[in-house]
Amino acid sequence: MDSEMSTDENSDLETDMHNDSVPCFGSRNSHDVGQAFKSSRMNMESLVSAEYSDQHVNNRLEELAEEIKWFDLKEDETLSDLPHPLLQGGQNRDVVLQPPGIPFFTNKCHSLYTEETLVWPFQKSAVYGWLKLHPSKVKKYIKEGIFQREYYSQTLVKRMMKYLFHLMCCTTDAELLYSTYNTLCYLIETNQLKINICQDLYIALANLGADVSKLGKDISGFKSPLIPHPTGEPSDAAKPFGLFKETITLILQLQSIVLAKNNMYKEDDVDELMNIYLAIGCDPKMIDCGLDSHISSCIQYSLSLYSSDKIFYQRVQGLVEKIVTYCDFHHHTISHVCCMYLLPSQRGKILKSSLAFLQVQIDLRKEEKVLLDIVEVEDVAELVEKQLHAIREEEDGYILHSVMKLLDCCIGHEPLPASQKNHLRRICDLLTPVVNSRRDKLDDMNPTLFRFYSTLVIAKWRRKVGPSGRQQTLHELQVTSVKKSGDPLLPAETP
Question: For the chain, what is the radius of gyration of the CA atoms?
Answer without folding.
Answer: 37
